[in-house]
């Protein structure tokens, strides 16, 4: 489960651990830093396709490769992984997809920024440095820490979190500042929790030496990060007009071509699938920002209400973001252990399939509850039951013909505070194969 806190007393001092063979001077910028910068995003979440990294490295002509792995659900999964093994808690996809390409990344001079550190950035750093050493690639690494606030969980109240004692992680969403500073010294920057947009804003601050109080530029750089953070979602993925999109098997991943004034073009590598137009970019623009006039980030409060999108060549030119000073608070994301969940999915066919699915589900729940009572176990904390293929989610707008479908899927999810209760539920599923409705022998968790 996830919980968000806004707590003005929880501030962090960001520590950058530098693993460097030498320090690089902050000397006079060369004129090349004023050339457009190409930032490509090769991951929109933990589990995204590994094909994106070689696509962008080989065909993106990149200056920076960024990878976003951390959703709120991901943090919960990483916490559970670290509890099992102290060397886990970070996103191994980073090592598996980027690791083999480190020699080419070094050769092309691409810098990498990723929040793959999760809840164990030190272990992520250690693994990547080992890969670089084994590959005999001389790369400088930097680690951004300071987001982990678990040691402060005793300050939580029950008003802020239902069960403070059960909190397993608490992380501040850090901004772009530490990333930009780390890039002064490193080729590869690994972070724990930070805002998704900071992965791109950090490189832009670093490259163009943008002032942190130029809030229009901070908003523009944040918009760059926001548009590319979900990977192929901005280049034709889950697009409303999906019929217009071709080549999902080779989806082009997003590249933002940015200039020092703040304007940028969103595009993708040539000869790749997907689609970049005003529609795909506009849908990503409004994704998860709530109020487009007041999108609160640690670096800036963004106003995207007057952003313009202009199709241009193979991409979309984006301009018009405005910014205001940020708040004095960090957003905190927390996780806590809130029991266990089991999900049953089963195809149901034949006449009255919907009624059959509901009757079997209710019988399984009733039988499980009877066993719970006998063993003095509490009832389920929550139940979710839906028969897919019948348009039940449409309520009164469902088409009658679908309600009478002869080919449906039972989706039954249960939540309980005791793992033993779900083991009982899972065991009883098999009984439906011979003891309940016909053609019901494929129940599985």
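Sequence proposed for the structure above (445 residues):
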């Amino acid at each position: 489960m996830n919980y968000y806190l806004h707590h003005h007393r929880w501030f962090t001092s960001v520590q950058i651990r530098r693993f460097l063979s030498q320090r690089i001077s902050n000397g006079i910028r060369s004129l090349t830093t004023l050339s457009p910068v190409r930032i490509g995003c090769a991951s929109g979440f933990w589990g995204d396709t590994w094909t994106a990294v070689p696509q962008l490295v080989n065909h993106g002509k990149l200056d920076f490769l960024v990878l976003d792995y951390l959703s709120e659900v991901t943090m919960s999964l990483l916490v559970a992984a670290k509890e099992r093994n102290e060397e886990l808690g970070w996103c191994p996809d980073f090592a598996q997809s980027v690791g083999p390409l480190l020699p080419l990344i070094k050769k092309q001079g691409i810098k990498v920024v990723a929040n793959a550190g999760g809840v164990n950035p030190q272990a992520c750093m250690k693994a990547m440095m080992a890969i670089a050493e084994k590959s005999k690639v001389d790369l400088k690494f930097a680690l951004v820490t300071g987001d982990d606030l678990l040691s402060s969980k005793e300050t939580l109240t029950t008003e802020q979190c239902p069960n403070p004692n059960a909190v397993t992680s608490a992380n501040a969403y850090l901004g772009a500042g530490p990333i930009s500073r780390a890039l002064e010294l490193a080729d590869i920057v690994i972070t724990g929790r930070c805002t998704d947009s900071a992965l791109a804003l950090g490189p832009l601050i670093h490259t163009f030496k943008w002032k942190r109080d130029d809030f229009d530029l901070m908003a523009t750089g944040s918009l760059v990060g926001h548009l590319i953070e979900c990977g192929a979602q901005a280049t034709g993925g889950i697009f409303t007009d999906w019929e217009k999109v071709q080549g999902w098997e080779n989806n082009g991943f997003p590249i933002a071509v940015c200039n020092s004034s703040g304007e940028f073009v969103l595009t993708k590598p040539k000869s790749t699938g997907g689609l970049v137009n005003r529609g795909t970019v506009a849908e990503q623009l409004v994704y998860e920002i709530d109020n487009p006039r007041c999108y609160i980030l640690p670096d800036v409060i963004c106003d995207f209400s007057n952003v313009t999108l202009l199709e241009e060549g193979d991409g979309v030119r984006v301009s018009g973001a405005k910014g205001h000073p940020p708040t004095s608070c960090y957003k905190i994301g927390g996780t806590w252990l809130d029991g266990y969940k089991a999900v049953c999915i089963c195809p149901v066919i034949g006449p009255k399939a919907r009624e059959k699915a509901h009757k079997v589900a209710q019988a399984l729940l009733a039988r499980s509850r009877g066993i719970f009572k006998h063993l003095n176990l509490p009832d389920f904390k929550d139940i979710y039951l839906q028969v897919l293929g019948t348009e039940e989610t449409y309520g009164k707008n469902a088409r009658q013909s679908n309600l009478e479908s002869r080919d449906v899927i039972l989706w039954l999810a249960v939540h309980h505070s005791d793992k033993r209760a779900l083991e009982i539920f899972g065991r009883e599923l098999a009984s439906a194969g011979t003891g309940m409705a016909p053609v019901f022998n494929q129940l599985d968790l």
